[in-house]
Design brief:
- The complex is a heterodimer of chains A (about 300) and B (about 550).
- Chain A contains 13 helices and no strands.
- Chain A is mainly alpha-helical and about 300 residues long.
- In chain A, α5 runs parallel beside α13 and α8 crosses α10.
- With about 550 residues, chain B is of the alpha+beta class.
- Chain B contains 16 helices and 21 strands.
- In chain B, strands 1, 10, 11, 12, 13, 14, 15, 18 and 19 form a 9-stranded mixed β-sheet that branches. A 4-stranded antiparallel β-sheet of chain B has the order 4-5-9-8, with helices on one face.
- The chains are: A mainly alpha (about 300), B alpha+beta (about 550).
- At the A-B interface, α2, α3, α5, α7 and α12 of A face α1, α7 and α13 of B.
């Protein structure tokens, strides 16, 4: 398992290098000169050139690229063009909020999605199932900005249960977390339902019933466990995506997270911040995929990593 | 300077676009009758996070809004755009216009504490003429890249200092603690108003040296508010400067407010929603869908007035078909300005007859300009040997308002035989396309940096300023150049006015722009906010030293 993990981490190195290389190439061909943006609406060409030199934009791309990796060895991602702050600091400031959002909404999505899916599967073709499926369809179809706005209208404007938007403590995170969770929850509900239906028809479940096990043990202990693998995969990817920042929701709820940071950086052509954010995102995806893979054995003992007696 | 950011706001140039104001009866001030009440925090929702709070870097509206509360310039620009005393209580200009002698106000102190109760490096000492000498030297320092330093390139010794031939800026000297003298290489009539631009704010040397590049994150000035804390991308907090030099008419110390809080809310629907929840004393933008509701709900605290800015489409006069004056005129006859303002902007703008906005020195109310006359446009195109019309492409920075306006023009121009294609791109990309000559018909907006026609006519249309200096149309007319060059040197205001009006008349006749509209500026406040004055420079330049909350 340890060896497997180390191997996977090593395999991530070329992935990260590749991702950063692509970002370097994209930022170099995208129109819009950072020095020009810093100078503002008008500036003399001499000053613009000087800013360009100061930022190192006049140097060959490969040189900037190798410098970036040299800096990486000491966790130095350079400084923001926009305000000269270290990129690591800029990212670290925004990360906690985004992490809170991603973890809470993924947790909520899993709990709500799995519950809904299980109920739907067990009560297949009953009212509860139909209701659950309609809910899931709505959750998948409704755009998050609309859901967010409706929640704000209801809870902030009409009921006044929540004072407003922004980053003002846990209260303020309730609505964004719900907004973010609805779509993955709906998706997970559908996956769980179909997974459960498949499993519930298997021989070993019939055996479990035949043994006279209580319903709860059969459904949760035997069936659900086996239906969980696709759910874990989806939850992992969804959390990684949210760590990259949920731009629409962050903007709507005025939350200064990673997503808004990335948007601002792109508009300002703040290349060091863009690179830092993409690097972070690449690492999060690698880590999330690894974690997902490592949790598979918990649900399916046939899957083992490393060691002897490996079955596939 | 500029106003509403197109999404990206950083380049203030184009910005102006969205904001805009309204045209209705201009209201400008909520002056409280008596002295104000002390206390309270003024909370304002802003659309973009400030870039830097170092006045020399603050060239976006969000940064400027804060810089105006933290710092002071030698002279001020009042809400009508007139130059008024500020840290200089009076000044003399020599007869030849070359020597400016400023009498400085005594007892003005730098902030003694900042970021809570942290002592500043300057310790709250008094500002003297030496501080101004140091500040001007710092701003023009050849080792720095302050994009606006060239605004004062007429100061004596500027070139020598920038080129490393001198150690100081020779033209700026302290005659004694309270007398500052600035000598110019050549006369420059708008000089005094340039000094009101936020870049030229006095800075405490000790704190600038202490923080270096990071001074923009730890600003220390002389303004009514001190820097308190800044959560990047989210919230910026200012607190009352208890040693501020101004007092109200009864001698009570200012400011009245305990502090200010600026919070970034990108989404305009949310700005409006939160304002109605009472979470803010002011919001930066009232979006078009809520405009009428805002007028109804807040009739006495929704301020609007014409702003010193113009929304236009530039034409590259060296590119076909824009190299033909008749084509440029035809394009100007092909649009219904008032129509789109009423229809798309809720009347929140004034049709542009020319370059200069109403309220600006030199504005010519009798200028004829272009009317909506598709037949005339067609005829001009025929005379220009385009009897079958023309096909042109407009490039604009991605934004909803710009899009709606461009689409309306597209329809109107059809009637005049002009086929208009639309291409939108992000602001930074548009600038690059303009500078490379790839965009030959492009949308821009301009709000003045200093209240003088020079900042419009010379900067945007004189052939000395091709490209990033401001003239993207590459327009060149020797007579226009002569007038705008000479007007810079002319000291007689009436003669200057005449020269600018003549220059503007030439520019309108030559039509390097499609003149669209002049912006209006607006500020929505809670009804209990008193003492606020909306400046014609745009709401982002408002001062809050005498604002108070009546609650």
């Amino acid at each position: 398992m340890v060896i497997y993990t180390i191997k996977r981490l090593l395999a991530a190195v070329p992935v990260v290098i590749g991702v950063i290389a692509v970002v370097f190439i994209l930022t170099s061909i995208v129109p819009g000169d950072p020095a020009r943006i810093i100078a503002g609406k008008t500036a003399d060409p001499e000053t613009i050139q000087r800013i360009r030199e100061e930022l190192g934009l006049d140097r060959p791309l490969w040189e900037q690229f190798t410098d970036f990796f040299k800096g990486l060895l000491t966790f130095d991602l350079g400084r923001s063009y926009r305000n000269n702050r270290p990129v690591t600091q800029v990212l670290m400031e925004r990360l906690p909020l985004t992490a809170k959002l991603a973890v809470s909404s993924t947790a909520l999505a899993v709990v709500a999605g799995v519950s809904l899916g299980v109920v739907s599967a067990v009560k297949k073709d009953f009212m509860l199932d139909h209701g659950g499926r309609v809910l899931a369809l709505l959750g998948i179809s409704a755009p998050s900005f609309w859901i967010g706005l409706m929640l704000i209208l209801l809870f902030c404007v009409k009921l006044r249960w929540i004072p407003g938007t922004g980053d003002g403590g846990w209260m303020y995170l309730v609505l964004p977390v719900i907004t973010l969770a609805i779509r993955p929850a709906a998706f997970i509900a559908r996956l769980t339902r179909s997974g459960m239906l498949e499993v519930l028809g298997q021989d070993y479940i019939r055996t479990a019933w035949a043994k006279g096990l209580p319903g709860r043990a059969v459904v949760l202990g035997h069936a659900l466990k086996n239906a969980m693998i696709p759910v874990v995969t989806v939850a992992g990817t969804c959390m990684a995506e949210m760590m990259g920042g949920a731009i629409v929701v962050e903007k709507l709820f005025s939350l200064p997270g990673i997503g808004r940071l990335g948007l601002e950086a792109i508009l300002a052509r703040d290349f060091p911040v863009i690179r830092g954010q993409v690097l972070l995102l690449a690492l999060v995806f690698v880590a999330a995929n690894l974690l997902v893979d490592l949790t598979y054995p918990l649900f399916d003992p046939r899957i083992k990593y490393g060691g002897k007696g490996r079955h596939e | 300077m500029v106003k509403k950011p197109f999404l990206f706001a950083i380049i203030t140039f184009v910005l102006v676009g969205m904001l805009a104001g309204c045209a209705g009866a201009p209201v400008g001030t909520s002056k409280g009758q008596a002295e104000g009440k002390y206390g309270g925090t003024f909370r304002i929702a802003i659309t973009e996070s400030p870039k830097s709070l170092n006045p020399v870097h603050a060239n976006d509206t969000s940064s400027m809004r804060v810089v105006y509360q933290l710092f002071d310039t030698l002279v001020g620009i009042d809400s009508e755009g007139k130059v008024v005393p500020n840290l200089a209580e009076s000044w003399d200009i020599s007869e030849d216009g070359l020597v400016y002698t400023f009498k400085l106000k005594e007892g003005v102190k730098f902030h003694a504490t900042t970021e809570g109760e942290v002592e500043t490096a300057n310790g709250g000492r008094e500002v003297t003429a030496e501080d101004w000498v140091w500040t001007f030297t710092y701003i023009t320092d050849p080792d720095t890249n302050f994009a606006r330093a060239y605004f004062i390139d007429m100061v004596k010794g500027y070139d020598d200092y920038r080129e490393g031939k001198a150690d100081t800026l020779a033209g700026v000297t302290a005659k004694d603690d309270y007398v500052l003298q600035i000598e110019l290489e050549h006369n420059f009539a708008p000089f005094i108003s340039v000094l009101g631009y936020n870049t030229f704010s006095v800075l405490p040397r000790e704190d600038v040296e202490k923080w270096g590049e990071d001074f923009g994150l730890h600003p220390v000035g002389t303004g009514p508010f001190k820097f308190s804390e800044w959560t990047q991308g989210d919230k910026l907090v200012l607190s009352r400067n208890e040693n501020y030099w101004r007092s109200d008419s009864s001698g009570n110390s200012l400011p009245y407010l305990d502090g200010m809080e600026l919070k970034v809310i990108n989404d305009l629907t949310m700005q409006w929603t939160e304002f109605n929840l009472g979470n803010f004393e002011a919001i930066e933008v009232v979006d078009d869908p809520y405009y009428h509701e805002a007028l109804e709900k807040y009739p006495d605290s929704f301020f609007r007035r014409p702003m010193m800015g113009t929304y236009f489409y530039g034409m590259n006069v060296t590119a076909k078909p824009f190299d033909n004056k008749k084509v440029r005129q035809a394009i100007n006859y092909a649009i219904d300005r008032q129509g789109i303002i009423d229809l798309l902007r809720n009347g929140r703008a004034t049709p542009a007859k020319g370059v200069l906005p109403p309220g600006m020195f030199g504005y010519n109310p009798d200028l004829e300009g272009y009317t909506y006359d598709p037949a005339k446009a067609k005829q001009l195109l025929a005379e220009a040997e385009y009897p079958n019309g023309i096909s042109i492409t407009l490039q604009y920075n991605t934004d909803d308002i710009h899009k709606r306006i461009a689409e309306a023009f597209q329809q109107q121009m059809k009637e005049a035989g002009i086929k208009l294609e639309l291409k939108h791109m992000e602001g930074a990309a548009l600038f690059e396309a303009m500078e490379k000559g790839e965009a030959t018909f492009f949308r821009l907006g301009w709000v003045v940096d200093y209240p003088d026609p020079d900042n419009f006519l010379y900067v945007l249309l004189n052939s000395a300023n091709f490209g990033p200096l401001g003239n993207f149309t590459l327009y060149r007319n020797p007579e226009f150049d002569r007038l705008t060059n000479e007007a810079r040197l002319e000291t007689d205001p009436e003669e200057r006015r005449r020269m600018y009006q003549e220059a503007e008349r030439i520019a309108v006749e030559d039509a390097p722009w499609l003149f669209v509209y002049h912006y209006t500026t607006e500020q929505l406040l809670q009804p209990y906010v008193k003492g606020y004055t909306l400046p014609s420079f745009g709401e982002h330049t408002a001062r809050f030293y005498d604002v108070w909350l009546d609650k």
